[in-house]
Amino acid sequence: MDLTQRFNKNLDKIQVSMIRQFDQSISDIPGILKLTLGEPDFTTPEHVKEAAKAAIDADKSYYTGMSGLLELRQAASDFVQEKYNLNYNPDSDVLVTIGATEALSASLIAIIEDGDTVLLPAPAYPGYEPIVDMVGGSVVEIDTTANNFVLTPEMLEEAIIAQGDRLKAVILNYPANPTGVTYSREQIQAFAEVLKRYEIFVISDEVYAELTYTGEPHVSIAEYLPEQTILVTGLSKSHAMTGWRIGLIFAPAVLTAQLIKSHQYLVTAATTMAQYGALEALKHGKNDALPMRKAYVARRDFIMEKMAALGFDIIRPDGAFYIFAKIPAGYNQNSFDFLQKFARKEAVALIPGAAFGQYGEGYIRISYAASMEKIEEAMKRLARFMESDESR
């Protein structure tokens, strides 16, 4: 009996992420130094940990409602109002999810049908397309490489028109993984002017909103386009809480009433003790990201200086904690092979640009969510590798 032929055929479109493939391919290298993960090297703030411990001791271990603790939804609503000038009713417009990943899954499952298309500026985080594929849709990438990875209103509108009635949603991610690109208020306003002319959803992944380095506050497209926007965020990056798995969806009540259906049958509700930790983070840790942000800027600037001296072309990232660097001319442009050789020669792991789609080939991604000590050593090894015959 071969039941493998009876799986959902949409799974045939999905492969194991190249990030995981690459990680597995170099995992046998002793003592390898990794600048790969999108995970802060900082620890969760002590006051957040204490709040979760107190919740456990108080036996707060039962289900919350499907939408999550009302107190947490209120704190989340207050947080985005204070930080980003957004107005959401905690009773009807906010859902607590199992990380931003489940927030994206619940949103895409709720809106995508067979034959629908979704626009995605590229290169992009590889976690969106598989969800769309699983529910019978398809992702259409907007190539931003010729414009330093910056989407323009003209590029956006041209892509929308080309898709016609098949288009169901646009995914925006900013600050962006892997490029670190983010957008000014004027740019966001211009996107909103385009998008409001079309009956499509805007799924805006703003999980890196607290990690922007322009000196200006992050601007959410939900401020200008609230009726179309499904805003996805979470506490993984802002509060170093990746393993706590707390995400958030903000959307108008008429949309949230539908999104809760997919959310409910995926997970029932987020983990109760983690929600109490998140409540503390959003209520009393509104600026917990500031020390991390300061450290990330120093790390970013150090890496940029060292890699530029080695001939890498780098667009200055204004958010998140990644550098997306073009492999210099004269070197192997196959990013997977290039980094395989680097890992084998110098025991350092970075992520191939090809992991972020066809428009990422020829680039490499470095995560600076690692200690300066590790970063300094990695840059020494990279310089040594670039001078060796193996790099060519």
What does this entry look like structurally?
It contains 12 helices and 13 strands. With 392 residues, it is α/β, with parallel strands linked by helices. It folds into 2 domains: 9-43 and 289-387, Aspartate Aminotransferase, domain 1 (Alpha-Beta Complex); 47-285, Type I PLP-dependent aspartate aminotransferase-like (Major domain) (Aspartate Aminotransferase, domain 2). A 7-stranded mixed sheet has the order 2-8-7-6-5-3-4, sandwiched between helices. It has a 4-stranded antiparallel sheet with strand order 9-10-13-12. Strand 9 and strand 10 (322-326) form a beta hairpin. Helix 10 (289-309) runs parallel beside helix 12.
Write a brief caption for the model.
It contains 12 helices and 13 strands. Pfam families: Aminotran_1_2.
Topology:
Layout: H1 18-25, E1 33-34, H2 46-57, H3 70-84, E2 94-97, H4 99-111, E3 117-122, H5 128-134, E4 138-143, H6 153-163, E5 167-173, H7 185-195, E6 201-205, E7 229-234, E8 247-250, H8 253-267, H9 272-284, H10 289-309, E9 313-314, E10 322-326, H11 335-346, E11 348-349, E12 351-352, E13 363-367, H12 372-386
Helix pairs in contact: 2-9, 3-9, 4-8, 10-12
- CA distance, first residue to last residue: 49 Å
CATH architecture of the largest domain: 3-Layer(aba) Sandwich
Tally of helical segments: 12
Main β-sheet, spatial strand arrangement: 2-8-7-6-5-3-4
- Relevant CATH superfamily of the largest domain: Type I PLP-dependent aspartate aminotransferase-like (Major domain)
Broad structural category: alpha/beta
Sequence of secondary-structure elements: HEHHEHEHEHEHEEEHHHEEHEEEH
How much β-strand is present in the residues? 5-15%
Average residue pLDDT: 96
Number of domains: 2
Which geometry do the CA atoms define? globular
Q: Unreliable stretches, pLDDT < 50, 5 or more residues? A: none
Return the CATH class of the largest domain. Alpha Beta
The counted number of beta strands is 13
What's the Cα radius of gyration? 21 Å
CATH fold-level name of the largest domain: Aspartate Aminotransferase, domain 2
Q: Into which percent range does the helicity of residues fall?
A: 25-40%
Biggest beta sheet attributes = 7 strands, mixed
